[in-house]
Design a protein that fits this description.
The protein has 371 residues and is mostly helical. It has helices at residues 20-65, 77-108, 113-128, 136-186, 190-209, 215-241, 249-265, 273-317, 323-335, 341-370. The protein starts with 19 loop residues before the first helix and ends with a helix.
Length: 371
């Protein structure tokens, strides 16, 4: 019997495999790995932090002592951060020391570059001897950078100081020359005064061009010089016209008073109003001084007169000296206008009375001798 062909089969469903244990193992393995990675990272960070802290301390100590620190391997977390931190700390500490050296020297020698360089180079040489060889190049670069900046500042200060000195010397020279111009004008040497004044103008313009004098200072100087020349010239003219020694002091005083009044009424046309005022003020002060001196001389003369009269009266009252000599002294005082007419008569009467008394006394003595 032939077999019947099977056209279809029933569906086969296999039983599920139990892999829950395997999954748990995988999960545990992943957790362990993650935990291990985290622990590694935490430990790495701690070593990095430790390396950074100890590197900073080592770098600062190296800058102070000059002893190179022992450098761990850069292939570890600790070593790489230690070496980097040590280098940074050394640079910072060394830069601070260099800054202090340069700053102190610059303050002490702000206007003297040579003195500054001598101090700084000596200090840097001493510091550089203690720098580890591995860091000498960077240290030298730091020094050159800081030093160059300080030297530029000192050079600028030095130039400004020298410029100020030059300016002061130039102005002092111009001022002295201006005094010479005024003196020449006072003595009437106007040609020489004008020539010297032109030289002052030329030198002043050169000083302005070179920056040794401001334009305002130059203008003030030239204006003042013109005024001084005019005033001193006028004063010299007055000296020759009024205060000439050929006039007596009384004549000079009177001429001075008259000229002051004339100037007040009719100011000189060759002077500005301000210069006329200065001329009147100067003359008034001179006349006032002469009057004061004369008053002092008169007071001294009065004292001398009083003493001379007193001495003469004592001679007369005490019957000292020859009556004729005393009489001559009285006449001398009278003619010198040191005693009045009434005082002359009074003294002469005393001399005559004393003389008569002496004559009478002498006659009595002679009469006694003749008995």
């Amino acid at each position: 019997m032939a077999q019947k062909r099977i056209e279809s089969y029933g569906r086969f469903t296999p039983s599920p495999i139990d892999n829950s244990a395997s999954q748990r193992m995988e999960a545990l393995a992943g957790f362990a790995k993650a935990t291990g990675d985290l622990a590694f990272k935490i430990g790495y960070k701690k070593r990095e932090q430790q390396g950074a802290e100890e590197g900073v301390a080592a770098g600062i100590e190296a800058a102070k002592t000059g002893e190179m620190v022992s450098q761990p391997s850069n292939f570890t977390a600790y070593g790489s951060t230690f070496n980097e931190s040590a280098a940074l700390a050394f640079k910072a500490q060394t830069k601070l020391q260099l800054s202090n050296i340069i700053s102190q020297a610059a303050d002490e020698h702000s206007g003297d570059l040579l003195a500054y360089q001598a101090v700084v180079q000596g200090a840097y040489k001493g510091l550089n001897q203690n720098v580890p060889d591995a860091w000498k190049v960077e240290t030298d670069f730091m020094f050159q950078t800081l030093n160059s900046s300080a030297e530029l500042k000192i050079q600028s200060t030095q130039r400004a100081k020298q410029k100020e000195i030059n300016s002061s010397n130039i102005i002092a020279g111009l001022t002295q020359t201006a005094n010479d111009v005024a003196t020449l004008a006072r003595y009437g040497q106007l040609d020489a005064a004008n020539e010297l004044a032109m030289q002052i103008t030329t030198d002043g313009l050169t000083a302005v061009k070179n920056g040794d004098m401001s334009q305002d200072a130059f203008n003030t100087m030239t204006d003042s010089l013109k005024s001084r020349m005019a005033l001193q010239g006028a004063l010299g003219d007055v000296d020759r016209r009024i205060f000439d020694p050929k006039f007596t002091s009384e004549e000079q005083l009177q001429k001075g008073r008259d000229y002051i009044e004339e100037l007040r009424a009719n100011p000189r046309e060759d002077l500005t109003p301000e210069e006329n005022d200065n001329l009147v003020s100067t003359l008034s002060a001179k006349v006032s001084g002469m009057e004061s001196k004369r008053a002092q001389d008169d007071a001294r003369l009065t004292q001398e007169q009083a003493k001379a009269i007193s001495d003469l009266e004592i001679r007369i009252d005490n019957r000292l000296g020859d009556p004729k000599e005393n009489m001559a002294m009285v006449d001398k005082l009278f003619h010198e206008k040191k005693i009045s007419l009434s005082k002359r008569v009074e003294l002469i009467n005393k001399i005559v009375a004393v003389s008569a008394s002496e004559s009478k006394k002498l006659k009595g003595i002679n009469d006694v001798n003749n008995i």
